[in-house]
Amino acid sequence: MFRHILVPTDGSEFSTDTVKRAIGFAQETGATITFFFAKPDYPVALYGEGALIDPTTPEKFAEMADQQAAEILSAAEAIAKAANVSCNSTSTTNNVPWEAIIEAAKETGCDLIFMASHGRRGLAGLLLGSETQKVLTHTKIPVLVYR
């Protein structure tokens, strides 16, 4: 069975529900969890006539992204620890989340990626989120999609 699960999270309500379900799954299987957050890179602004200038420096942007990652990951860890599930967390800066998720799973030795489908409703609910779809398409690691 699965021993080490990567759980990507973005801090959204649906993502938090997925974290809770992954923790329950880990309890059932005795697995360890690594929570993961893909931090965005500093956006390169194209300046031209009528463009707005963002006063945020790359350093300040990175600091805010680090703070956001720390808050989201510590919240996930707190839920896991309350359920007595062994966990840790990691984050990396990458503007392509699906690539970052796969790389994190490889680097941490995870044998399962447990991720949200992005919780769409109606006709869109029949389709998986684009990041989830790309992870499914590009990894050889098993993926469990929570809806």
Automatic annotation (TrEMBL):
Coiled-coil positions: none
Q: Cite the UspA domain residue spans from the record.
A: 1-147
Q: Which CDD domains match?
A: USP-like
Q: Name one Pfam family in it.
A: Usp
Q: Which family does it belong to?
A: Belongs to the universal stress protein A family.
The species this protein was found in: Denitratisoma oestradiolicum
Q: What protein name is recorded for this chain?
A: UspA domain-containing protein
Q: Which InterPro entries does the protein's record reference?
A: Rossmann-like_a/b/a_fold, Universal_stress_UspA, UspA
